[in-house]
Write a structure and sequence with these properties.
alpha+beta, 2 domains, 11 helices
Length: about 230
């Protein structure tokens, strides 16, 4: 009986800090070699991989998400870091610092377009897109009455209208992420270019843009150079 009891508890220790239900979904998600957006393919049907991520998000505890964010494969890490971001967990900044040092590559399928990215890059993009999402919600609320009075129709599903983030909080997070990136001289050309590009095309001049000068000299990047010139005007 003692031996039988011991064998029962082996899976618990083996699966680390995941409950049986979460672990089952975790193992399923781990089988995928590509991160997929919610709608994929020529007919934009719901991705079963993304559905698995949603199911994990529904039942996983904060600690379980954090466990997977550090111990999963790149696909799992990309998905669950999104879950950690959405929940606005305090561990987010530490996770971003960790991904900068362990910036594994990951394949991503958005709709029917495949590309390659990296863990820290995707986490930064989540934050910046959330900023744009909040801006969209503000614009929508501001113009709601005028749109309906003119006979227009508000298409609610266009916007991600559920967020725990406030505008000042996401602004503060972006400042922290960007300073972390630009204070690290080993930050990749791709990631620094994303910082420059996203801010350039949203007409945002960051006050610490001079930190980009080092990377312009290091990488000789047209995007970085263009953004520095934009901020200098």
């Amino acid at each position: 009986m003692k031996i039988f009891s011991f064998l029962i508890f082996i899976p618990i220790f083996y699966f680390g800090q995941l409950s049986p239900k979460v672990n089952k979904l975790y193992q399923k998600l781990s089988e995928s070699d590509m991160v997929e957006s919610q709608q994929v393919g020529d007919f934009f049907g719901e991705s079963p991989v993304y559905r698995c991520f949603l199911d994990i998000s529904d039942i996983a505890t904060d600690k379980e998400l954090e466990y997977m964010a550090y111990n999963g494969n790149p696909v799992v890490k990309t998905y669950v870091s999104k879950g950690i971001f959405r929940r606005k967990l305090k561990s987010l900044n530490n996770l971003f610092n960790y991904y900068l040092k362990h910036n594994d590559s990951v394949s991503i399928l958005e709709g029917c377009i495949e590309n390659h990215s990296f863990l820290a890059d995707e986490l930064y993009k989540y934050a910046f897109r959330e900023k744009m999402n909040i801006d969209n919600m503000k614009w929508r609320e501001k113009h709601r009455d005028s749109i309906t009075k003119a006979g227009g129709k508000l298409i609610e599903e266009i916007y991600e209208n559920k967020t725990l983030w406030k505008e000042e909080e996401i602004d503060s997070l972006l400042v922290e992420f960007e300073n972390t990136i630009l204070n690290d001289q080993s930050s990749s050309k791709r990631l620094v270019e994303i910082v420059a590009e996203y801010n350039f095309y949203t007409d945002k001049k960051i006050p610490y843009f001079q930190k980009l000068i080092y990377f312009d000299e290091k990488y000789n990047s047209e995007m970085i150079k263009q953004y520095i010139e934009f901020c200098s005007k």
